[in-house]
Write a structure and sequence with these properties.
The protein is an alpha+beta fold and 199 residues long. It has helices at 3-10, 32-42, 49-52, 58-69, 127-138, 156-165, 187-194; strands at residues 14-18, 23-29, 74-81, 84-93, 110-116, 146-149, 168-175, 178-186. It has a single domain (3-194), classed as Aminopeptidase, CATH 3.40.630.30. The longest helix is centred in the N-terminal third of the chain and has 12 residues, at 58-69. The two termini are 21 Å apart. Acyltransferase required for the direct transfer of medium- to long-chain fatty acyl moieties from a carrier protein (MbtL) on to the epsilon-amino group of lysine residue in the mycobactin core. One of its GO terms (biological process) is siderophore biosynthetic process.
Length: 199
């Protein structure tokens, strides 16, 4: 299916009440004027800089964000906790991404990049509930049987969170901007792990 049509299908907001943390997790599409300053600030946070390499000027970051918003193989989201913006997500079609060159990709595999921005949300046990919600969101596309990730191989904490969510390590991959750990999350395994009857 053409990426524009697929994008139309999935370009929606998503909200779920997480029983574990007793809070509402939601995702909404990034809006340039609304979010550029916020995201620029997050890209300069010490815990973000080593893995995103986007601690650049506001002018340059705005150009970057415009390009990403116009890239039809991905959709950008702001993750919110009880309505408070606190994370950034890139959901993408793996076949149209460089990662699709590194494994036997299916046309409907989706991938994911993420960061938690404000430091006050770090170390609060929020990464797993948010990742779980985003993966569930991606599996709402019924033809997606696998969600993939390729976190920086140095990012042990994030790799651990992916594994807790239901991802399995596949292999390390040399990407243009990093050495990543390719990881797969199978729909059926994810469904069984979290007892989601609606997937």
């Amino acid at each position: 299916m053409h990426s524009l049509l697929r994008r139309f299908i999935v370009l929606v907001s998503f909200k779920i009440f997480d029983q574990e943390i007793q809070k509402t997790i939601s995702f909404r599409p990034v809006e340039l004027t609304k979010d550029v300053n916020r995201l620029h600030n997050w890209m300069h946070q010490p815990h973000v800089v080593p893995f995103w390499n986007l601690a650049i000027s506001l002018e340059d970051y705005e150009k970057h964000l415009k390009n990403f918003l116009n890239d039809n193989h991905q959709i950008l989201y702001i993750g919110e906790l009880d309505g408070a913006p606190m994370s950034y997500w890139e959901a993408y079609w793996a076949k149209e991404d460089i990662i699709g060159q590194y494994y036997n990709v299916d046309s409907y595999d989706q991938g994911i990049h993420l960061l938690i921005g404000p430091k006050e949300f770090i170390g609060k046990g929020l990464s797993l509930p948010f990742l779980r919600a985003m993966v569930k969101f991606q599996f709402r596309h019924l033809q997606t049987k696998k969600v993939i990730a390729e976190p920086d191989i140095r990012n042990d904490k994030m790799i651990y969170v992916f594994e807790k969510c239901g991802f399995e390590k596949v292999k390390s991959v040399e990407l243009p901007d990093k050495t990543g750990m390719l990881m797969f999350c199978d729909r059926e395994r994810f469904k069984r792990r979290w007892k989601y009857e609606d997937l």
